[in-house]
Fold each of these.
Amino acid sequence: MTLGLLGRKVGMTQIFAADGTSVPVTVVAIEPNTVTKLRTPDRDGYTAVQVGIEAGKRRLNKPDLGQFKGELPPCPVTREFRVDSVDGMTLGQTLDVTLFAEGDLVDVTGISKGKGFAGTIKRHSFASGPETHGADHHREPGSIGAGTTPGRVYKGTRMAGHMGVDRVTVQKMKIVRCDGARNLILVRGSIPGAKNALVAMSKSVQI
């Protein structure tokens, strides 16, 4: 339960470490995050910090604008991060890339790329059938259950269906570089989501 930031996935590239090795990284653009709400156990039953960004500049309706009355800027995109305490946090406070440092381990949450309706080979890594000797079932899934017993298809049987557009969290990803001048964070490896997708990044809990 740690504080985090919202950002946009820019894309992937590579940088070179001090020893000359190539490091694949994902670039995340972090615009200033505004603290829009503080959750407390007495009022809400749990402790959390809600942060928002103005990404996309989506128009808000009157009910949404209600929580930003006063000096808070309207933030079309908001997310909550569970924390142990909100001491030292104030409404309207701005958070940026300085929340993290090079070498930190972070958990990154995003919506995976949509793949549409996919077969079992693509969706579940099934093996394909024979390609010769008169075979005509190259990519079919095969049997999905017995006949008389149980006389039905078990729930959870791996079959063709919609693939992607799932909420995915990748844990303990290492921050390779923090660029405060350009508000960029470079994370080693790939993270969920397409280009320009919204991602939430928080420090990993060390066990």
Amino acid sequence: MKELKNIKNILFDLDGVLYQDLESVFGQVSNRMTEYISKKLNLNLKKAKELQTNYFHKYNTSLNGLMIHHKIDPENFLNYVHDINLNVIKEDLELNNELTKLKAKKYCYTNGSRSHALNVLGRLGIIDQFDGIFDIVDANYVPKPVMEPYKIFVKKFTINPEEAVFVEDIAQNLKSPKELGMKTVWLENEEAWGKKHSDKNFIDLKIKKLSSFLKEINILKVA
């Protein structure tokens, strides 16, 4: 942890990191994806779900596969799948408190849309904490863990990777940040896709709770 004392930038993934009840929110998104694919490609829900899962594992997002093979309009897709009920997300006072104390710039980096990020951050009560949001549109629809979007992010916000730390719940998404020179933090979870490659050496730290991790950084910074 001591190596994080002088960190100037912290990058947070959105879903599964800034809130951890992934199924209640992203479960809805996943169901909307299945519905969208079913309607657009005239498939029954079972076949649509199979295609959705196949594209996710092969292309890192289902949208990426749909754009490559079916010329799906990404904006239309994102608007549809993120039209969900976020009442399950409650204000996180503890996280807000630690983010307020944090003497570093804070960024949200998501494979989802900016509007979804803003909606989630608003529900959490932390929307004003962030110095920037980087979404899949900013990444030219190229998802993590491909290197190029991370380079675009660094250039967009004029960040020195060696002064940054990236927090993710999907372990393999930390490979490129590590190669850029960032410190990497995996938020432990039992989701099969999330913990895949969590034993690799491109992960510097493993944590169980985000607010507790930030509290440790805040203690370091004033020590």
Amino acid sequence: MKFSVIIPAHNEQEIISKALSSIRTQSFTDYEIIVVCDACTDNTKAIAESYEAKIIEIDAHSSGAARNAGIELARGEYIIFLDSDDYWLSKDVLQTLLQVAKDNS
């Protein structure tokens, strides 16, 4: 596994699909998606599951704690954080990041 993409989330049902879709459309596919539901009470978890994301549920009310929980589960060689209200415009983000990592190692 090359990449672990971690998305901290708290009740993001209205916007998380765009972030998840932008990951799922990547040309490079050796990645996992981890969504950390921090005290979610809406459908964020169900939406993330529909994108085959791994889910962690915590009750910390802290984006830092959510990121750390995601890191603990991550299996990728590289860890990337994507906020639930962000998304990638290019389908080659992961491929580009991998090339940059190779060029600089």
